[in-house]
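Tutorial handout. Part one gives the primary structure; part two gives the three-dimensional structure as tokens.
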Amino acid sequence: MYGEFHTPTERVTVSAYIVLNYTITNAKGYEDYPPAAMPSIAASGAEVLVADNHSEAVEGKPGDATVVLRFDSKEAARAWYESADYQMAKAIRIANADGVAVICDGFVTPGRS
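Part two.
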């Protein structure tokens, strides 16, 4: 079940996303991150929507690497991010890259569900 929020007249179901954007600072050390992270992502039920180490900046100064994961809810996204299974992988990423991670709700156009 996807995350839910309510408007005065309808119940809307939305996905939640984790967006990671970073610059890899130690390529050799970072090589261990994808194989360490993927089992926990698969176990969480998340869908990998984007995994690009050569993102094209069109505004601002984002990192080169972008990953977008879709979860059923913010609670599911946070549970994966804080899970024991992901902590070793997260430590590898943080030690070998500089960037940000955010959890956000999907968008539903008003009047659509």
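Part three, for discussion. The beta strands are 3-6, 11-14, 16-24, 47-52, 65-71, 97-105. The chain is about 35% helix and 35% strand.
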